[in-house]
Structure formats: C-alpha cells, structure tokens
Amino acid sequence: MIGSDAFAIAADDELPALTPRQEREFAYHRARAATLDGLAEKPVATDVLSEVRRRPWNAYWSLYDRIIAASPAGKRVLVPGSGFGDDAIRLALLGARVSAFDLSPESVAIARERAERAGCEIDFRVAPAEALAAYDDGTFDMVVFVDILHHVEIAATLREVVRVTRDGGLVLGDELYTHSLLQRVRESVPIARVAYPLLRRWIYGRGEPYITPDEHKIDEAELALVLGALEAPQLEWFGLVEGRLFPSRMVWASRVDRAAMRIAGRAAARLASRVVFSGTIRASAV
Ligand SMILES: C[S@@+](CC[C@H](N)C(=O)[O-])C[C@H]1O[C@@H](n2cnc3c(N)ncnc32)[C@H](O)[C@@H]1O
Is the CB of 111 under 6 A from ligand 1? Predict the structure, then answer.
C-alpha cells in the first residue's frame, strides 16, 4: 500500500503519465478527499432501486428506470469516473458484474471500502477515462455515465469506451449539459457577477460548491459526439430552472420544472441543464 493511512491505496493503482487537465483534476480531488471524513463508512442509498413509487421528474431516477428496464443482472457493466462508488455498488446490488474506475486513487480507496461493507465484489481501478489500457476490446455489455463527461476529454473517452464495449452494448448516461447559446448568457456579467453569487448559497447550501478548474457542462456539440456513437439514442431533458433558480430539494418545483421541459418540445435541447440518454453502440463506431 502507498499513500496516507487515511486512504490506503493499492500499489498496482499506477496511473500513466497524465495530461495537464488530468493533473489538475487529480490534484483537486486529492485535496477534496483530505477534507472528507467518514465517507468510507457511509452506506450507499438504495431507494432509487427499491422504491415502488418512481420519480419521473428527477433525472437520476429516470436513469435508474432505464437501467432497471435493461435488466443488468449478470451483465458486465463499466462505470467510468465512479467517484465514491455509489453507482458501481447500486449496479452490483442489481446483480451486474461491475468494473469501475476513477482518476482519483483516494476516491477509489473509499469506493472499495464501501463496496466491501455492502458485500459487493467490484473490480475498481485507478485510471483516466481517456486511456483504458486495463480493459480488453469488447469486454462490456453496458456502460453507465453519471456526472463524468464534463470532467474528461470527450472524444478520447468515447474512443476508449467504444473500444471496450461489445458491438451492440448499451450506453446510458445522466449528465450535466448546457447549450452553448445559454452558456454565453450564463457567462454574461449580470448572471456571473450578480445573480450567481446571490443564488449560490440558496442552491448549493453553505459548503463550497464542488467545481474543478477545468470542468464545463457538456454542450450540444459534445453531446452530438456521444450520440453519434449510438444507434437510435433516446433522450430526456431536465432542469429548466431546477439547480439554476431553485435547489433540487424542492420537489414540487422540480415536478413543475419537468412538466415545463416536456411542453418545451424541441426547445428543451436549448434550455436544459441535464440530459439523460441511452442507446446501443453503433456497429460502425466500433
Ligand atoms: C462529479 S464526480 C462524479 C463521480 C460519480 N460518477 C458520481 O456521480 O458520484 C467526477 C469524478 O470524475 C473523476 N475524474 C475526473 N477526471 C477524470 C478522468 N480524466 N478520468 C477518470 N475520472 C476522472 C473525479 O475523480 C471524480 O470522481
């Protein structure tokens, strides 16, 4: 083992040479992990798996509706950028044979401990999404992205994910998204300098928001790269003002927000702050 006692890191968790962006992500998550206490002992919430009454207004629950409908039991599932292991553990609890990786050795150490406590056998690795030398071609039946694409180089990551997924394998995701036109508005002085600082605490609570130096919500061109690798992709848009003007904890407002996105039709792709997608790997993408 290497590293501090708080995060025992396996010696074979060696990373390749990192790009400057990966270096900054690595350093950010190392510093963040040092501020987190007791996370390894925190059990993973499983209501999204077991609750009979579903929450179709919530992007994350909608992703899990799709995952459950795809019957992951017995399938080989890859979870890129697995963080503290929540989704990898949930998929294992659904009976999937899970492999998961993250750039942060500290996060992987926490995820391994949580999986052990949950009685799940998961192959966790430390790796950058852009270089997945640890996995052979065509290994996985399913890939589940959650809040990771805005941290990585999308084209390189897709190349690797397509390579390690079998022809016809299913890709699902729930990702942060903002159309480039709306992003320009978000970056304008009145929004960035006035509205955002005023709303920040209301939306994110008292803690520092978790935002790395390089992350940016994926835009329509990056989403098109992902969808271009998929056969007949299915999309759902979320978050007109949820997470922008009010926090996700306001359930009634989230329900209204989701209804507004449905009414928005094609305009939803310009307005949304989240996208849930799924589709099978296109044969020509492999
Ligand atoms: C917002 S967190 C999401 C974690 C997890 N998917 C979740 O939903 O809880 C982003 C994660 O991406 C990881 N990450 C950042 N850059 C990465 C890269 N190039 N390759 C793999 N993981 C990366 C970070 O270490 C962090 O755990």
Answer: no
Q: How many domains does the chain have?
A: 1
Atom 17 in ligand 1: which residue has the minimum CA distance?
A: 103
Q: Whose CA is nearest to atom 16 of ligand 1?
A: 151
- Give yes or no for a contact between 201 and 175, defined as CB atoms under 8 angstroms apart: no
Per-residue pLDDT tens digits for 143-183: 999 999 999 999 999 999 999 999 999 999 999 999 999 99
Residue 161 lies in a domain: yes
| Residue 57 belongs to some domain of the structure | yes
Residue 62, domain extent: 20-285
Query: Where residue 126 sits, what CATH number does that domain have?
Result: 3.40.50.150
pTM assigned to the model: 0.93
CA of 32 to the centre of ligand 1 (A): 12
Arithmetic mean of pLDDT, 95-109: 97
- Best residue for ligand 1 mutational test, from 48, 102, 248 (most atoms within 8 Å of Cβ): 102
Whole-number CA gyration radius for the chain: 19
In short, whether 176's Cβ falls inside 6 Å of ligand 1 is no
Q: What is the pLDDT of residues 205-218, one digit of tens each?
A: 777 778 899 999 99
Angle at 39 between CA 34 and CA 80, to 5 degrees: 85
Please count the other Cβ atoms lying within 10 Å of the Cβ belonging to residue 35.
8
165/1 Cα distance (integer angstroms): 31
pLDDT at 10: 57
Answer yes or no: is 6 within a domain: no
Nearest-angstrom CA–CA distance, 237 and 251:
17
Rounded Cα gap, residues 210 and 83, in angstroms:
13
185 CA from centroid of ligand 1 (Å): 27
Please indicate, yes or no, if residue 13 is contained in any of the structural domains.
no
Ligand 1 centroid to residue 29 C-alpha, Å: 9
